[in-house]
Known about the structure:
Largest interface: A-B, 60 and 50 residues
Number of strands of chain B: 10
Strand content of chain B: 15-25%
Largest sheet of chain B: 5 strands, antiparallel
Oligomer: heterodimer
CATH class of the largest domain in chain A: Alpha Beta
Amino acid sequence: MTRSPTRVVIVDDHPMVTEGIQSILESYVDVEVIAALACGQAIIDRVGELAPDVVLLDLNMPGIGGLSTTEILLERRPGTRVLILSMHDSPEYIASALSHGASGYVLKDVPVDEIKRAIDAVMAGQRYLCTGAQGSLAPFSAPEREQLTNREQTILLLLAQGKSNKEVAVALDISVRTVETHRKNIKRKLGISSTAGLTRYALEHGVLQGTGVRI
Amino acid sequence: MKGWFATARLNYGQKLFLLATLPLIVTAVAISVVVTLQSRQMAEREIETLEAQLIAAKRAELRNYISIARTAFVNIYGRAAPDDEEAMEQVSQILAAMLYGQDGYFFVFDYNGTNLVSPRRTELIGRNWTGLEDASGVPVTDELIRLARSGGGYHSFIWPRPSTGERSQMVAYVIGLQDWRWAIGTGVFIDDVTAAVAASRQQVETRVQRTFFFIGGATILALVFVFVTGLFITIRERRLADAKLKRLTQRVFDAQEEERGRVARELHDGISQILVGVRYALETARRRLATGDARAGDTLDRGAAHLSTAIQEVRRISRDLRPGALDDLGLGPALKALSEDFDRRTGIATEFDTVVFRNRLDDEAKIALYRVAQEALTNIERHSGATRVHIDLRGHAGGGTLRITDNGCGIDASRAGAGGGLGLRNMQERVEQIDGQLAIRSSVDGTEIEATVPLTHLLTPQGQSETVPETKRATA
């Protein structure tokens, strides 16, 4: 039985890394690299048109970083599997990647066939966490309390400012349903049931008062 | 008015100088005014008393003269009838003969104003002087006659001195001989009284002026003192500040050089050597491939393994220089990694607590708080003997607060002053640099270090503008 090859997009601002991964993946018949992009905004803009199965996404990129890109990408095209590529091997990175919706996390300096194994794993619907050169990544325990993602923080702020679901959706160019999902997740993570409670929470923790960057 | 305020904006030193001198000047002026007014008032009262006494003495003298004269003619007058021409002539002659002192004499007017006796100025005799006024318009004869009619009294007016012709103030005393309708009187000049009063006034004025000059002098001396002291202190402070700045700069340079030296050593002794090993392996592999040696694959594997080591080494050095998590994930995850690492390395049970928000602090605040935590953990490891450490980071309506508590032996005050204090001072400077506050509470039961950054260092969550960079670092 022949299966159509997995459609992969590589997003990394280092051409050497992109080329290296591309040349490795070309040796596999069941993987097709349909695009190699250099920044997060490019994949956000083209995810609909490219319709990739898996996006290999660099964590550290100029412009929108890998975490925010993951979130927005998944809002645009929810079925996409995102595999984060990174040089960082600490558990915090992995936890953050997963909480922002990534399906897997692979260190860049792993043996070549591991990236392929990761692609196969996420295509099979599994989570893939790279074993890493030191094996330090292996047992990953979920954090006791989930942190809000970047997107959720943005939405919390907008809601706390008194905006409705619809207004938030318009402001962020996403669907109202997506906002509702985020809102549900925020309430669940904070253990708060009402919108007034969200506003109060934002006030108490200095979210509304920050003066460094105005939205 | 607005313009005036704008130009009158003073710096701190000038304000301080004003604060020191203005009250001084105001006080000095107030004292001068009060002293001047009071001493003038007091002197005036004294002078008035003096004048009154002198005048009283003069009046007593005049009464005396009149009473002597009266004794001389009272027998004749007592026996004479109201129209006894002979008796009148006799009395006139007696009075005309009674001269005293340089300018003293007796005069007589009849009630009609005609002069009857005036021995020093005989040209007045026999003429009617009704309506005579002195130089300043005071009626002379009319008033003297009025006083005589009413029995007697004093009158003061300006009159030429018989001896010199010079006009002077005179006090006269008259009595009336009602039967003859005569006014008999005598007068003395009171220039000496006026002179004495003027002299006293002058004296008072001199005294007031002297006091005034004294207060003024003292004030000026004080002002000069304040000014010179201020100048001296300013110069000294500036010199101290310069020296401090120089020491600080030196310390920054030292730290920088030390850090560079360390990184250079690590690059050279660590990574360079490993990469050299990789090159050897690659060259060996090529030679073995050329000769068809089957071990070429193993050699390549060894080279790849060396490269992995090199990558790990770079990762370690990079993380030591600056943890990537701080920039990529925020302070919370970076501190979590730090505390887990600390826990693993030292065996001191370390907990980290934070709220669910991430990446809320700007770069300055993140790195400052991270270094404070690092410094605190170093101190705890080296000196405290603690078995438990708790790190807590949270945002609140007033900013963000990092709190590090341990159950160690506290900070030894004697040690804090010397080498151990450098870490504390570094923390202090780090936090002050971002306008934050550092509180260190230490007892034998442990230490609590609390660093607070103001709201100005808190960012709002990344907003609609999706171009806000998560990180500006180009390395992956």
